[in-house]
Amino acid sequence: MAAQAQPGARSLGPRAGIRGRRIRVAVVALLLALTAPACGGSDEPGDAATGPARRADLPFTHPGVLVSKAQLDRVRAHVAAREQPWLKAYEQLRASKYAAADYRPKPYAVVACPPGDEPGRGCVEEREDALAAYTQALLYNITGDRAHAVKATGIMDAWARVVTRHTEANAGLQTAWAATSWARAAEAVRYTYDGWADGDLLRFERMLRNAYLPQVVAGSVESNGNWDLVMADAVIGMAVFLDDHAAFEEAVRHFRGRVPAYFYLKSDGALPVAPKGSELDTADELSRYWFGQRRFADGLAQETCRNFKHAGYSLAATAHIAETAWHQGVDLYGEVKDRLRAAFEFHSGYQLGATAPGWLCGGRLQRDLGPDTEVGLNHLRGRLGMELPHTRKLTLERRPEGTDDLFVAWETLTHAENT
């Protein structure tokens, strides 16, 4: 990834009229699906060993983009009971600029995001507005205050009325960052709130299909791994929200092709797995791709020797994809649990201060891991009972983990001990 250009609660309960509205929304979604072009970045079949990730005739579970209904209910209960760490995490969210009652979106028709230090246009505004919509959606689900749902849908509608495309070299990454938050916000509101007008909802769905999904659905195999993984994170979230089974399968294919190529395990052999679809096939090419590293150890990431920040983006995106798939009955975690555990432990240990040996990145590490551990730790330790001592220590020291202002937000609140 190139450098940025800019760098008390109550139970909600069922609401009158929501069932009828859901029927109308389902009809709208069906019509949209029938008229939308099929998406997909490849005409290759799914993984021969596993086949399609899920049956296309099975409905998606909603809400189910990163956070499930049961998880939202538990968060609300924890906050109402003033339990930690959820109360402190809620107060952190509540105090953020994204939670402001007078928050005003700043939509752009064309979001232009060049690499490096070149000035962009609309990049920061888009990411922040998407995060604000998600923040307001969480506030609505926790407090039951409809003003937050109105604010969330208003932010989303402001962009849906304006944005048409993303341009410049960082367009794919920018699109993915924003789309992850848009999908989470929309999913958390659509199935818990009865005030999102059908026309506005349809306009937002069209925005995702036209201005976001085509930009990211094919991935970016020629880029560093964090690009492909956050793109797949965006695609799987949009796929669930849009009830788009083809896009869901595409995200799963990218996950399966990229995660083993991004995080090393000694079972891979002397060299890392090359990204599926790439032309990397020699030791020298792989070393250059891994930022000069020639010796590999369990948990090392393709961008570790670049910095931990980018490795952390990929850790977070990998966990996000697997978590959304988990809520849809697909166990991607099970396919990579040992690899993911090793990567979390490797980076957490060094982030905590372990001395880097000379063979690792020349003994020089940029230890700038972000708030990227809660979702993976919740599954690996909480659901599977795996031991992650370094990751747990780091996570406990950092709680509550807030937001990176890109695509990770409030995950202590949503995922701490939330199995």
TrEMBL record:
Q: Which residues form the Alginate lyase domain?
A: 129-349
Give start-end of the signal peptide: 1-40
Q: Name one GO cellular component term.
A: periplasmic space
Q: Does the keyword Signal apply?
A: yes
Write out the GO MF terms.
Answer: lyase activity
Q: What InterPro entries would the database entry show?
A: Alginate_lyase_dom, Chondroitin_lyas
Q: Does the keyword Chaperone apply?
A: no
Key words of the record: Lyase, Signal
Q: What is this protein called?
A: Alginate lyase domain-containing protein
